[in-house]
Amino acid sequence: MSDYDPQALEARWRERWAEEGRYEADPAEAADAADDPTFITVPYPYPSGGMHIGHARTYTVPDVYARYRRQQGDNVLFPIAWHVTGTPIIGAVERLKTGEADQLSVLRDTYNVAEDTLKDLETPMGYARHFIENHYKKGMHDLGLSIDWRREFTTNDDRYSKFITWQYETLKERGLLEKGLHPVKYCTNEQQPVTTHDLLEGEEAEFQEYTLIRFGHGDTVVPMATLRPETVRGVTNAYIDPDASYVIADVDGEEWFVSAPAVEKLQLQGREVTPKRTVTGEHLVGQRVENPVTGDEVLVLPAAFVDAENATGVVMSVPAHSPDDYLALQEATADHDRLSAYGIDPDEVDAIDPVPILSVEGYGEIPAKTAVEDAEIESSTDPALEAVTRELYNTEFHTGRLNDEYGEHAGEVVEDVRGRFRDAHRESGAFDTMREFSEAVVCRCGGDVVVSEQDTWFLRYNDEAWTAKAHDAVSRMEAIPENTRGEYDHTIDWLNEWPCIRNYGLGTRLPWDDEFVIEPLSDSTIYMAYYTIAHRLDEIPVEDLDRDFFDALFYGESAVEDPDERALQLRKEWQYWYPVTYRFSANDLISNHLTFYLLHHAELFDPDEWPAGIVIMGMGLLEGEKMSSSKGHVVLPDTAIEEYGADTVRFFLLNSAEPWQDYDWRTEQVDSVRTQLERFWTRATDIIDDPGPEDRPALSTADRWLLSRLQRTVADVTEALDGSETRTASQAAFYDFEEDLRWYRRRADRSRPAARWTLRAVLETRLRLLAPFVPFLANELHERLTGTPAEDAPWPEVDDAVLDGGVEAAEAQVERLVDDIQGIQQSLRNADEDVPEADPDQIRVRVAAGWKHGVFDTVAEIGADQGAVMSQVMSDPDLRERGNAVNDLVSELIEFARARGGGELDTLAGLDEAAIYRDAADFLSDEFNATVVVEVEADGDSAVPFRPSIQLEAA
RNA sequence: GCGGGGGUGGCUGAGCCAGGCCAAAAGCGGCGGACUUAAGAUCCGCUCCCGUAGGGGUUCGUGGGUUCGAAUCCCAUCCCCCGCACCA
């Protein structure tokens, strides 16, 4: 016997696996073409930082499945690679080089990067390499992941780029790529597009599409931005900031009047803008502008609340439907002096009445007025105004119906009509469009970030033929859990065009325009195919990897004129492994990566090569809170493995929740897993040291019971693992069976040869069941026990000859009896006074009389049908004589039968109840430290079949 | 707003799809006991309320309903979490 020393034993196995190349998988020789290839993938990690315990689970769940299939006899490929595409790594390097404190702290404190190593991290690939080698690869090795390491690559490798080049040239040729304008975040200081990572403020900002209502002032267009274009008929006036700076400019050949900041925005949104002259807002105050829809002339009033930084800096006022406008108008009216100072006739302003343009239930004629008055808001600076406004906007959007003056649109609900109304007026030239963020956005450099429209290449994910194929792919694959299937379909329908390029970043250049880089979610859609050939591609010069090469590889020899022999060789490897059996991935990736994965496979490959299954994974928490490397709230696999050992880490990660459920790393719980594994180890080594006889001796009831329970465990674990239910499976193999063992230890004398034999058989099977979860421990013990590691032994199968329902039912009766006796004891102990029977000297167990068992047999035969049972029973004259007693018994038994299946009743009917208790008498006697007397009741006693009467007797 | 998931005993968390062996698994925590010089580990019992005999009562977010019977099915309602795009 030796102590459990996970670090030492795990190190031995790691070394052994590496030396043997244990998990390197190759297509089987032609001779065993019948074998079963299983191809498992997981999203390749993005090494912009280190690996934490959350990542560990992402890769361990597929490892368990891979190990399981291997024991089932499959040829299993589980590869890994590294995703470096895009800007995060570059951004991280930039922040390191500029000495940003947060970044340095993450590197030094969270990821323990040594001071003299920091300089190696100053190039993007140097940075990536560090985290790949020292964190991810090390962590994966330490965890014992059964990865084929020959196939690793990065997405910045030349050969990978050739592969992506092939993919994008092919898609372009098929018309699935399209060029167009697209809004991006653009830093006005750095004069380039920026990503969310580059932002100081406004990470949550959304793109908003404003409609510009083209009010006219003479020949000048005064565009006013709104999110509610349908309110145009309710405009009573306009507002402008009299003190802000505005520009009269030539815009696409017209004269426009807009705020100064709007000039650059309009330019960035694809307009030709030539500023002609700068004025203050006062220039327009008191003027009239013409509503392009109604032709009405409305007055422009001064207002300090107008933000010249937002949109065009001139806004229209709809006091009937906007609480803000309503209050602003009231306040303007109240301040005659101010109006007069701007040369406006106060009477004219007083005469302005709100013009309602839609009706909405519960808000009266002038909804904004009602809303403001109901909420008792009197000032435009009241903080409660925002909520009132939001509520009114919402209600009007969903239930407001347009008034008659809207002609063809009259009577329609805003929600349904807004888009059509806007488009119609855009068509006619009354409206225009401008984009703006929902909040201020500031770059890390301090510059303002605005919306810019840039020439971009799109993937046409809304192409009808394409989406149809993708839906087909969804319907053919296995979605685990099944309730995620709808999400894929939903995402496919919801996706629009996807801009697939960026201005900078690591990765593959767009083949026909090398200014651009293919972005990360677009260069990671079919790389699983690359795994199948990655290690062999290295033999081929990069320049040979052209279009024809990959066409031959993926589409066969007839696809190209003069197929490359090497490509055709690789094609065999690809065809051997494909399709991907299961892809394990996080649930938040359904809405992009996983659906892209389906779309690209559906387009580029035949249905036979489409993804066979996707397993969704939940998120990880740490002590109930989200992990965050920037806050240092992470556990690194390194640290955890050092403290607990890899098997404990794995077992915790797999056992605490099913893969698709969120899980929570709690030190307390991990500690307890470690304790449990230690106990398992101790018991196992005890059996290994004293394994009992080679040949099967005569077994006791308890032995046969345990072996029967083992068969059920095998069935449960196998079924659970087939569905990737790692929690259910490990729970059954480990904890649930521990319960059975606990009973067995109470019940059986373990020094008997038959017990040693039984325990040994049980241990061997359990080690095989546990090997996918705790490979180090299970392989070690299995090898000590049998001479072979568990992973080289076949997966256990249920042995029907060992399944014994009768023994299990009998044993359940004994357990039930123990429970009942304890129940009575408990009840007696509750008494205020001492009751001597609570600690009995003798326990009398009376089994139901023979005729009662006869009735039970009838119930078992007929089922829970009181009438049918009664008429059958009453046909027996002896029973008829007993009258009421029979009636009562049948009622009781019917209730008993209702809760049980027919099979169980039959099994019970076949048992000799008294014999069961007599066999267990010695055991019961030991348990309760009392004499146990088993007898059949005298007539008239209260026992019921399988519910003996019990009497505790003190001396 | 759109889409998805969820509310179970001190905590974590099964059960719900296929209603009844469900006062509700397992783990953790707590209490008592055995073992031990002691601690730890291990083992046994208890851990919603009441009860001197294996029983009874009230529970599974809330309110209704279906049913002989509901944690499980249906309806309504409240609350919580996650994703929503050019970000990997």
Written account of the structure:
The chain is of the alpha/beta class and 955 residues long. It has 4 domains: 269 residues, 3-Layer(aba) Sandwich (Rossmann fold), CATH 3.40.50; 233 residues, Isoleucyl-tRNA Synthetase, domain 2 (Alpha-Beta Complex); 137 residues, Isoleucyl-tRNA Synthetase, Domain 1 (Orthogonal Bundle); 123 residues, no CATH class. The protein is built from 35 helices and 32 strands. The strands form 9 sheets. Strands 11-9-10-7-6-17 form a 6-stranded mixed β-sheet. A hairpin with a 4-residue loop joins strand 3 and strand 4. Helix 23 runs parallel beside helix 27, helix 24 packs across helix 28 and helix 29 packs antiparallel against helix 33. It starts with 5 loop residues before the first helix and ends with a strand. The structure holds one RNA strand of 88 nucleotides. It is an enzyme of class 6 (ligase). This is Leucine--tRNA ligase. Pfam families: Anticodon_1, tRNA-synt_1. Its EC number is 6.1.1.4.
